[in-house]
Specification:
About 20% of the residues lie in helices and about 60% in strands.
Length: about 170
């Protein structure tokens, strides 16, 4: 087969593949509620690419937001931002995620917040494998009042006892 003929066949094959993509074989999901609350749709779902809009990722914005990127009162997504956020990277007042940043509570592999619970935790109250905070409890803990295998401050032990967390921090 000659080189120009080979190139024509490869080009025709690529055109078929692009045509299949445009028909929606890889198209994402887009759903939005007609009901609106405080200027936001009640729910918005945006997952995956949308070639017609030129979007590689879906960005959902709503009271309940579900998407690759999600912004809402309750947000669930790869990157989630909201009052309550769940995601790979979650930021909110209450957040749960792989990397979680929460104004009040953060729970995750790595957690940063007023109260932080995670493998690595940093905050006012931090509980985790590695914890840093005013009150810290963990395998490795740093702070003003600490419960860890190498340090046991009575102030920290009493604080965790007062809030029913003595079983989490006991024996450290």
């Amino acid at each position: 087969m000659s080189e120009p003929e080979d190139l024509r066949k490869r080009l025709a094959d690529l055109e078929r593949q692009v045509s299949a993509l445009k028909r929606g074989s890889f198209r994402g999901v887009r759903r939005r509620s007609a009901l609106v609350f405080a200027g936001l749709p009640l729910y918005d779902i945006a997952i995956g690419p949308d070639p017609e809009r030129g979007e590689l990722r879906g960005h959902a914005k709503g009271v309940l937001a579900f998407g690759d990127l999600a912004t809402g009162i309750v947000a669930l997504g790869g990157l989630a931002r909201g009052v309550v956020a769940f995601g790979g990277l979650a930021a909110g007042i209450l957040s749960i995620g792989g990397l979680s940043i929460g104004l009040l509570l953060a729970v995750g592999g790595a957690a940063i917040g007023s109260i932080a619970l995670g493998g690595g935790a940093a905050g006012g109250v931090a509980i985790g494998g590695a914890a840093a905070g005013r009150y810290a409890c963990g395998g490795t803990a740093f702070g003003a009042a600490v419960v860890s295998p190498v340090r046991h401050d009575e102030e920290a032990a009493e604080f965790f006892r007062r809030y029913g967390l003595e079983t989490v921090c006991r024996g450290r």
